[in-house]
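Changelog-adjacent note: as of this version, every example in the card shows the full chain rather than a window. The one below runs 584 residues end to end.
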Amino acid sequence: MTKNEIAEVLEEIAVLLELKGENPFKIRAYNGGARVLESLEQDELERLIADEKLDSIKGIGTALAQKIGELHTTGQLDFFEKLKASIAPGLVEMLDVPGLGAKKIKAIHEKLGVDMMAGLAQACADGRVAGLAGFGAKSQEKIAEGIRNREAYGKRHLWWKANEVARPIVAGLRELAEVERAEAAGSLRRGMETVGDVDFIVGSSTPGPVMAWFCGLPEVKEVTARGETKSSVRFGSGLQADLRVVPPAQFAFALHHFTGSKDHNVAMRQRALERGQSLSEWGLVPAEGDGMAKEKAERGESVIITDEAELWEQLGLAWVPPALREGMGEIEVAASTQFPRFIEATDLRGAFHNHTTASDGRNTLAEMAAAASERGWEYLGIADHSKASFQANGLDEERVLKQVADIRKLNAGGAYSTHIFSGSEVDILTDGRLDFSDEILAQLDYVVASVHNAFSQSEEEMTQRIIRAVENPHVTMLGHPTGRVLLRREAYKVDLAKVIDAAIANETIIELNASPWRLDLDWRWWQKAAERGLLCSINPDAHECAGLDHVAAGINAARKGRLEAHNVFNTRALADVQAYLGKR
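Full-length structure tokens:
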């Protein structure tokens, strides 16, 4: 296990111990051990373990060093497995409800005897939770709302997580001798923020072995349906998937149809009808006559195409990328012009809004710099939290200025090909003031201003709060503008149109937070805003080295928002970025 993976286990152990009501000192020892691990370089940890000197590090005792060593060597910990088995699964499940931490769950369990999500929902409905010390009516309603949202979101999955499942399956399908072509379709292919299930489309003349391979995948927990040309399965995560095997000549039509969206397909069928044709997953056939589309295709009446691009040509349309197929006017555009080249991952030269172990990140400044260099990035912005985000170990004035000095020293050393910009994710306080004074902000290369609390403010209060921050000349960009967390927390109430107007007027960048859990600002806002001059920055909000790769999810959203490279700040070369930040 890596140091970050081990740290996650230690944190989970701390939470489980808190659920059991264990000694607070023991709980703090595991949380503290996780923080110590994150502050070490990976090779330093490995050297300490090899030399059996890990317990010489402050904050790691002999017992904890033994557990860390076991996790590092074997990837497992018997103590951890036994601890998980000793706690009712329902209590752990409750941790997914916003506003419920281990202490509150323990209190609910001990005072009300609740150990299942259904029992918690009933206790809220009966008003029993509000009667507990430290809760009240507002806490009870927040918990009840969290449970309702969890149920509503339960059938959806983050694009990032679904893609992690789908990508190796597509690769495996393509390696089968019987498969000529294979793709993932549906909302996954369109790059939607969340997906309900995954559709796999395969072109093959011998579907039997393909079905057997798919249904026999080790990650499949249940085969819900199995036929000659279609099978459905459920994975351990709850994600459901369908595999459809079609004749190779039908593949392009099926891929288009099952990519969707429904509204897009309706518009495409209408386009075909206007030209005397009928479009379906079976093919593109003459519309007149009594025969059904499938029967006509089987009789060889369908237009022959080898890929999707030819389908658009047949309908007199320019190619529409999958990301744009949402029934939002893309057919009308494609009928009159070619779409421009939208942004691609290779256009990015760096990214801002990233965290280190100085606040709540899991990798050191040097490790983040090395990771950016490995990715070939010209620059990386470090924006650890400010002091108001105490829960994220936010930096005070002294610590942030020390980090600025550390970054300058690192750049001067020339150990990494990536230039590091010193910044801060500064909290926007409830009245719109910033968590640092202008004097401190002026010493940073850039500033990301974000809301991290008081989400229940009225729309007018929140809008004025954010606009005041946007108008501060030291603020370079606005971070995750609506505060949403996908499948977990709805956006706070804010008049985004007014915020965007203020950002344009003050030449303040708005972030497209590429964290798969956020993707905020939502893609639906970007096209019109960019046309009016709003500048975007696709930021991963990375809290560890691997998190830098989250820019891929941001690229999905940016393409859906029809952003081109020139609309995105971090496609600019290092010298251009330095000049821009220098002027501000």
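Structural remarks: Residues 136-153 form the longest helix (18 residues).
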